[in-house]
Fold these 2 entries.
Entry 1:
Amino acid sequence: MHEKSLSDFAKNKLRALENKNLRRKPQSTVRLASGMINRGNKNLISFACNDYLGLTQHKKVKAAAIQAIEKYGTGSGASRMITGSNPLYSELERALANYHNTEAALIFSSGYLTNLGIIQALIGANDLVVFDEFSHASLIDGVKISRANFLRYAHNDIKNCAEIFSKKRAKSENAMLISEHVFSMEGTRAPISGLAEIAKAHQAWFLIDDAHGFAILEKPQKTADLWVGTLSKTLASIGGYVCAKREIIDYLQTAVRPGIYSTALPPSALATALTALEIIKSDAELTKLPLKNAKKFCAALNLPEPESPIVPLIIGDIEKTFLMSAELQEEGFFVSAIRPPTVKTARLRFTFSASHNSEQIEKLSTAVKILQKKYELNNE
Ligand SMILES: *Cc1c(COP(=O)(O)O)cnc(C)c1O
């Protein structure tokens, strides 16, 4: 029907989402120091943030950002291809490459744009991409716009992954295997060395997205061709990056569209990440705290020992999930309710950070236990 107005189109879409409880609406929220947020005039302890080490509020990190603004101004003016790269780019790229034990690194404006851009630049219509079914949307979108043939394997299932390659690899020119190190909605970790063997056996390029594992879990062995990460989580800033051999990075610099056609990051974002990385390298104890805190919570609730600081509590029913999240909020805890299509089964998702203390975690586990009884959930 051509006479339908754009407003009617939008209203119909919203109504359909509301009927399914799927409309999304972010609320005005202020993040405070020590893992707290303020929402609706109420202070809440946040178990929802990716600022794993609390470095967005660190004195030295903030000072570095302010200093970079004083020195270089706020924005960067244009794409790196047009106005060139601020010297902080090469400094941070060198530091990230060193951290991942690779020859070189390249920074983009977000983790999302990194995946979107690099997959599209490396893979095309005659190629095959095989990836974990729970892969992040940025990886899936990158694969889709590459126009490659793609297949998903069951979550962390090495056997299923190998079967797909055995059946499909011969028909395609190049191939890529993609996995995350830590899966952002499951909290599980990938069997990286097993996947690397499959990639090698089938001559596939291996990409690992380490957005959630970086700096807070032990480093996986150097087994991937491409390490993707973000500056926006543990590194307390905004931006994304890929690490690889020098010639691969040199090619990507000239080929990745979001790198060419989007404005460079503000220098303050680079200074932030650089300083955060220095703190990470100098304070090994700090980096262990998020996982330690997740373990305390799981022990208190008799949940299996977590593999990462991300702990999902599967609920299933979307409405119940929201009610539980709302009740936790009443009790002073901010915990996100994650629902389809982001995940297959609705859940509460807890992320633990170095900012949480034992008392906060104890209070949270007590509140969750009460809700589990009320909503008749068991831990299985
Ligand atoms: C968060 C995340 C991204 C996106 O990074 P941004 O910098 O937030 O755009 C990409 N991949 C994974 C696995 C992530 O968890």
Entry 2:
Amino acid sequence: MFGTEYLLIPGPTPVPERVVRAMQQPIINHRGPVFHEIMAEVVDGMRKVFKTAGSRIMFCPSSGTGMIEASAVNFISPGDKVLVISIGNFGNRLAEVAEAFGGDVEKMDFEWGTAADPEKIRERLAADTRHEIKVIMVTHNETSTGVFNNIEKISAARGDHPAIMIVDAVSSLGAIDVQMDNWKLDVVLSGSQKALMLPPGLGMMAFNERAYEVYKKNTNHHYYWDIDKAMKFQAKGETPFTPPVSIYFGLQESLKMLLEEGIDNALKRHLTYRALIRGAMDAIGLKNVADEACASPGVTAVYVPEGHTPGELRGIMLNDYNMVVSGGQGKLSDTTFRIGHLGCIREMDLVSCVAALEMTLKRLNVPVELGAGVKRMQEILLAK
Ligand SMILES: *Cc1c(COP(=O)(O)O)cnc(C)c1O
């Protein structure tokens, strides 16, 4: 096949040409003056993306899960009661990580395909009159089901309960609004390879003063992930251990792109992607996992037609149309596929994806009217 594949998975996502070029710069001394300037610039830029004025931002060479671990080791002490709110596979991962580091986990599960109910969370926390729950962990955008949680309402549901809240914003930051300060989020973690339009390999975590106070009393083991070590080096524009210098060049550029576009405009762009994909699935007659009200702007999980497997469908899309979509996750593995539409995606990439999907379904003898989904997308785009 000519050129690169259409990469429409929920991370890693396509990297824009500007960012690729920025990353081609020769490697520099990570303890030299140019790196010091880059560090200052990306800390400042990330604060704008997290929408926080004063939170500290820690970077670590890591995938997103590494940052979940970083949050666990720094903010959960062994024996702490941790309330994990789960609406899917990534919510379950939060519980696993918290448990692995000694957290006494209580999981609140909500049905896959729906969002967490802030009212139920309010009730649970109100019942905790002795304030035994120390930490709340929640996924912002649940990548396995294509559902996003209303983090503003979940945070407000705490009332005056003192537990700190850790938010996994790996697949939301840059695609779905995160207002760290306004919503009083204590810890927000993310990764480079989703809506931040970078290759995998750099994790970031923002945390406020309240969280820092909790860290200071923390009794867990931490060395690589230790916050104070990171902050001590950041004061000099450095990291304790060798940073992925090329990804910092890329981050410098992708932040420039995001801020030129305007973060809120980027969020709107993702709403268009959601409308396009959901509109197309409706027109084709495929069922989305997520309810309309909580459907993710960044990823859509779709049920495969009865009698077919995600593997069959994805195989044809890949081999014959160079179109890469994801399989399902967890208990949705055998019944769903997922289209990632976050980061550096063009509307026409999604139109191509739907055109390929329609032909794939036709070849699988699924009754589908060729062009129905594409037509719906064209109508949505013309009405914009
Ligand atoms: C992608 C993702 C992660 C991180 O996954 P890694 O493979 O470790 O980068 C964590 N949480 C959510 C919600 C994600 O979508």
